[in-house]
Amino acid sequence: MSENAPVRWTQATVYADMWVDPDQDPRGNVAPDGELPTLLYYLGHYRLTLGMKCEGLDADQLARRSVPPSTLSLLGLVRHMARVEQSWGSRVLGGEPVQPVFAGDGEDPEFDGAIPDRTVVTEAFARWEEQMAGTDAAIARFDDLGERVPLPRHGGQQVAVRDVLVHLIEEYARHCGHADLLRECIDGRVGQ
C-alpha cells in the first residue's frame, strides 16, 4: 500500500459497511409494494447514493480522475447521469428533441469537461437535478408500464416504459459502483 493512500473509514457507527447509520440514511430501507413504486424506489435510491458519494468534497476532489488514461471522476459521473436522464427521460419517454446537456469537444464531453472548477460543479449538479425532474415528469404521464414508446435513432423500434426504468436503474447501479471506488481513492470513505 502506498504511504499516500487514504485510510479507509466510514461515518457509520452501527454497521462498518454502511455509508451512514440506518437512522440517518435518506434512502430508506424497505421497498414498497407494486411494480411502479418498487422501480421508482430503486431509481431514487441510486440517485441518492450517487449524490451521497459526492457529499463533502471540493471541486478538485470531485474532478479527480481515477487512473490514466480513464477520464472517470465523480463529477464526470454526475454530468454523465444528467445526460442519461435527459436521453431516457426527455428524449425517449417525453418524445422531446434534446440538445446536449453539456457542450464540449472530444469524445465524452461530460467526462472531458469535468474540470476542478466550482462553477462547473454547480452547473453539473443543477443540470442533473433538472434532468431528474424531467424524467420524473415524463414517467408520471404513463399509467401502464407496458406502454411502448419509440426509440429515436433505432429505426422504428419501441421499448416498454418499464424497460426504460430498468435501464435507468442499471445505469445508476453500475456507476454507483464506480463512485464507491472513486470516493474511497479520494478520501478513504467506504460504505454502500
Describe the fold and architecture.
This protein has 192 residues and is mainly α. Helix content is 52%, strand content 3%. The chain contains six helices and two strands; from the N terminus they run αααααββα. The chain has helices at residues 35-54, 59-63, 74-93, 109-112, 118-140, 161-187; strands spanning 148-150, 158-160. A two-stranded antiparallel ribbon has the order 1-2. The radius of gyration is 18 Å and the shape is globular.
Structural class: mainly alpha
- On the 0-100 scale, what is the average pLDDT? 92
Oligomeric state of the chains? single chain
Rg computed from alpha carbons, rounded to a whole number of angstroms? 18 Å
Poorly predicted spans: none
- Count of DSSP-assigned helices: 6
Distance between the termini: 23 Å
Strand order across the largest sheet = 1-2
How would you spell out the order of helices and strands? HHHHHEEH
Please describe the structure with a list of short key phrases separated by commas or semicolons.
two-stranded antiparallel ribbon; 192 residues; 6 helices; 3% strand; mainly alpha
